[in-house]
Design a protein that fits this description.
CATH architecture: Beta Barrel
Helix content: 10-25%
Number of strands: 11
Strand order of the largest sheet: 1-4-5-7-8-9-10-11
CATH class: Mainly Beta
Number of helices: 2
Low-confidence stretches: 6-20
Order of helices and strands: HEEEEEEHEEEEE
């Protein structure tokens, strides 16, 4: 290698390091992240429920306007507020959590405005089926956490999809609307080597 090329190569290496350093990794706070949903009940009312357990992370580069999100939802933690319905939902007539214990969403953060993403374009895997799903991000904010003194982000996002496309068509013969609205409230702390308090 010619020595005259060494400064240029070092400059490229430093530039690449600077770019990667701009990306921040946030870990979802399971105590403040609850995917929830709204589903029709025979056109008479709207049933609402949530999942009590989830995990994941967000990778964000606000300067470049790029990022990724990954969320894993424990399908066994579904909660309608009614024990009998929870037991039915995890059974083989619906979510079949013995075979499909998790639902996942993986996507890219897009359409940044003033350093904040307004969409996530990715795929939802539910009941063993993977299909494209775009989330609309209604609110996204980052600031120092008042207690932990580290970077902290929060967001609200939603999407509507046809559950029958994931093999979840229970109730269709009784007039249930197959569309479900998924809502995700999420808070995440910057990833550190220390365990969260």
């Amino acid at each position: 290698m010619r020595l005259s090329r060494l400064p240029a190569l070092l400059a490229l290496a430093l530039a690449a390091t600077a770019v990667s350093a701009a990306e921040t990794v946030y870990v979802l706070d399971p105590g403040h992240t609850f995917p929830s949903f709204e589903a029709d009940h025979m056109g008479m009312s709207t049933w609402r429920g949530k999942f009590n357990r989830s995990r994941g992370e967000v990778r964000l580069d606000r300067e470049r306007g790029t990022g990724q999100v990954e969320v894993a939802i424990d399908a066994r933690s579904i909660n309608f507020g009614l024990d009998a319905l929870n037991e039915w939902a995890v059974g083989d007539q619906f979510l079949d959590t013995a075979r499909y214990p998790e639902a996942t969403y993986r996507g890219k953060l897009t359409d940044f405005r003033d350093g904040a993403p307004t969409r996530a374009e990715g795929e939802l895997t539910l009941h063993g089926v993977t299909r494209p799903l775009t989330l609309t991000i209604d609110r996204f904010k980052c600031q120092p956490h008042p207690l932990h003194k580290r970077d902290w982000c929060g967001a609200d996002a939603h999407a509507t999809f046809d559950r029958s496309q994931f093999g979840l068509d229970a109730g269709r013969d009784y007039g249930f609307d197959m569309n479900i609205t998924l809502r995700i409230q999420v808070e995440a702390d910057i990833k550190t080597d220390e365990a969260a308090p």
